[in-house]
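Session log. Operator J.P. requested a structure for one protein chain; no other inputs attached. Running the standard single-chain path with token output.
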Amino acid sequence: MDIIAIAVAVLVLPIYYLVLRYNLHMFQLNGYKNGEHVTWMKKNHRKQLILWALLLIGVAGLFFPNLIVWIAAVVLLLICGRYYLYLKKTNQKKKLVLTNRVKRQIITDLLLTAIGAVLGVLFYSNLILPAILLIMTACQGWLLLLVNLLNRPAEMLVNQHFINDAKRKLLEVEGLKIIGVTGSYGKTSVKYYLQTLLQGHYNVLITPESYNTPMGVVKTIRESLKSTHEIFVCEMGARHVGDIREICDIVHPHHGIITSIGPQHLETFFNMDNIINTKFELADALPSEGLLFLNGDNEYISGHCDPYPNQIFYRSTSNGEGYSASGIKLSQMGTEFVVNAPNGESESFQMRLVGAHNVINVVGAIAVANTLGIPLKELKVPVRRIQPVAHRLQMLERGNVTIIDDAYNSNPVGSKAAVETLKMFDGLRILVTPGMVELGEKEAEYNHKFGTYAASCCDYVLLIGKEHTKPIYEGLMEKGYSKERCLTYDTLEEALAYAYTIKEDGHKFILLENDLPDNY
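Structure written below.
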């Protein structure tokens, strides 16, 4: 019996690793926040039902360690190993990053497991060692919550050290101008557009990729800021009230841009008032002489900005104050438009990007660059050089097929703009989408609306995941959309494979709208 128990204990170790790795990956995607991870575990409990069976076998081994229990444990462990290898293979959109924080969590997790195993062996019997390991493996999702609580004091000290170091580096760069960029959507795009427009006149640092959390900003400053930098464009993201204020307390921005505000991350914000107030935390943090650039086309922004001085509106249409765009023309080569400045100056521009919301984002970047002293005429060439940001209406040519990749974190406003952009192309228009997430109780309602306005814009709609996309399907049917042209698939690969087989005249345009993250 001892040999069998030892064999089970050895077999459980690689399974322990796979289960820990998967749950740690999900915990990282949930921002290391216990509340969000608990919500995720409740919503996705079916994904790990096998752990309940593993827990029952572990408890049985604790009280009735016998041959039948250990044989059942071996069979279950083999199934569990195969399943978590599958999850490891499929969860590749944003891989687990082995940061120092993750390493500390792994060490604490292993210590807790080791303590439990040693105490069990010392005070009971070595026969229950595999049972303890089985129980600890099955409880990884919950054990990580305890690990996070135990590590919190140390993590706070480490983070504060890094924050203080970042603040010191910022103060050492004389004359550095810091521009904060926030919004429910468009902030990453505007950040990159600003870099393109400013870099011919200034030495510019931006937060890379989607680094928009306090520690992501701190990492950028500590690793990339140099004494020669003149402008730091800092993207500021938020999932909770106070998140923008926390970043502002670190970098102290001189100027700010609020790109757009809309229903996003409602699972953590709960209502639109919280979202609006959080985005305007950037405006609250600006000095009195600072410049605040606001999207005047956005109803949530225009209805909230009265108390703030030094506003500079930018708009996608010509009516209203500030910078505006007119004469917007779309082609397969991109978009042409005219920018009208508050001083009466105007200039025509051409860019590779498509979509009305891209026009408003570029106008916002032009407004900032022009206000910082770059004439509109000198911005014509930089605007032509603007590259699409990956997965944000990025056009990819594939022979007689154009992929319009808008797979990054779709939202109600962005998804509507995307299908309306698709409608403007002359050819066969195909929408591929799994729908939108992180919209709380209104998720089904917003996906239903998505279906209603997609109905008039798409020749085919290919849905990914029957259950989650059911509201989109119902919205399509409400508008009388053809059932034969609305199909559902289990994976993106299956949907794309079918899209390529559709034989109809004309150039084919395939819009990829949203790509669910691994924790969905």
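Operator note: The first strand starts at residue 177 and ends at 182.
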